[in-house]
Prior knowledge:
heterodimer; A: 240 residues; alpha/beta; six-stranded mixed beta sheet; four-stranded antiparallel beta sheet; 7 helices; 33% helix; B: alpha+beta; two-stranded antiparallel sheet; ABC transporter ATP-binding protein (chain A)
Amino acid sequence: xxxxxxxxxxxxxxxxxxxxxxxxxxxxxxxxxxxxxxxxxxxxxxxxxxxxxxxxxxxxxxxxxxxxxxxxxxxxxxxxxxxxxxxxxxxxxxxxxxxxxxxxxxxxxxxxxxxxxxxxxxxxxxxxxxxxxxxxxxxxxxxxxxxxxxxxxxxxxxxxxxxxxxxxxxxxxxxxxxxxxxxxxxxxxxxxxxxxxxxxxxxxxxxxxxxxxxxxxxxxxxxxxxxxxxxxxxxxxxxx
Amino acid sequence: xxxxxxxxxxxxxxxxxxxxxxxxxxxxxxxxxxxxxxxxxxxxxxxxxxxxxxxxxxxxxxxxxxxxxxxxxxxxxxxxxxxxxxxxxxxxxxxxxxxxxxxxxxxxxxxxxxxxxxxxxxxxxxxxxxxxxxxxxxxxxxxxxxxxxxxxxxxxxxxxxxxxxxxxxxxxxxxxxxxxxxxxxxxxxxxxxxxxxxxxxxxxxxxxxxxxxxxxxxxxxxxxxxxxxxxxxxxxxxxxxxxxxxxxxxxxxxxxxxxxxxxxxxxxxxxxxxxxxxxxxxxxxxxxxxxxxxxxxxxxxxxxxxxxxxxxxxxxxxxxxxxxxxxxxxxxxxxxxxxxxxxxxxxxxxxxxxxxxxxxxxxxxxxxxxxxxxxxxxxxxxxxxxxxxxxxxxxxxxxxxxxxxxxxxxxxxx
Lengths: 240, 414
């Protein structure tokens, strides 16, 4: 069964350190891990464990010092800015803790932004973005600006935006960190539905309950993976 | 640059960031506006100074005859020279291409002028239309003598402001008949003269009329000429001296005067007295150019600062866009496109408002030292182009730096 499934993310011996003045801070000390298509993985760890750094490298927002990273069979190495931008647009969808919506654009225009950078025509862009807003249940709010939306709604817009370009992998960084627990579970329910459709999703979190709503938990401590196990997924809908 | 999608994106950004757009536009627009006004005022100031210091045109050359001091070609010394109309024609026809304004004159120094019960003794001058510019007489009512008046020897008179006050008090003299030496003349204009009361105590009639009325035949008392103005005093002096020498030579030959005779033809060249004015004007020109360039520099620095702030303010947005797949070049293009567009539109508005203000209000400004401020349109437009280009160059570096920021750093920027 495993052999039939595409390997989406392959990471071998990944190292990353940051220079802090004279000292060098070794954040990732040899990470090895693979993610198959359709997985829903939680990356856990306390702050300083290196989980965000790992996510940034996966998202091509940051570069590793050593090791290899292959995304859907494409080696991610020595990318120039332009190529990195194209790969990000094509392969990845980002969901951030602080939403990172552009505050002067409407929900619909925010969702459409990745499509603009794909060079899609306006009419098609708007039609497709509307479909994704509908999917996250915010079709009625399409013309609202982010500051007219609740936290949960903003995160739904961000999820619609991440999905708009039909990426291979969704990367979520503490996506429920700014939300109360009921809203968090609603958002996780949406994430589970998207995963059920076969989308590969990585979630960075430090919350146990959120982690248990994924299918696999990878535990990071001091820059190494100390634990990597499949879990029985708790359906978020039960908690709502 | 011409992609419709980009324009849509730009218009959306501009229209949804009204305050930012307004502030950028306002500072660029007002900068250009101030610059245009400043350039205009500097021209007005120059006009004002030139006008203040000059009772007569500063480069006027006056010619009046005297007596010969050397016997020549059978004539005794001590012969009175009388200039005639054809002497004037000789000069204006012979070297007309060098002359700007010219007039011959015939004057009576004490003419009795009466209007109803008021009367006074004033200088009466028979002049040609150009005399207005030689004398720098400004018409405040009616008009000056024209070529037709001269041709048909109209009995028209243009009176000085002092004469008007003496004879007419506060009423308008235009169209009224006054008596000069017992003959009726119709008042057609009133002038003021920067030379003051003394020069406003004269009346002008057509030369031909004066010659008939005072029985002068074709006699004239003097002639005046000006040459086109030179920017540089030394050049003006040189041209003017050469011109005076040429006139002297022509007249001496025609009137049979010894070439070395120094008293038969008197030439007063006013330009020799105006060196200070030329120096003042050129110093002022340097000063206003300096102020203009400094203002422009301040404008450029202002635009650069705004650009820097805009990029700083948009750091997070840039990070988001990059995370979503914006290439660095598209970020630079987006920022520059937007800023050049806003700068160009608002700069143009500032330019237009400045020009309109100068056009509408300018002619009414008659302060002692500022007259008719105006601005050279080409200079104004090149200033605008320079400012936009400077804004674009100044904006490019922050935009480039903004595009180079790692998205992860930009996203952390709160």
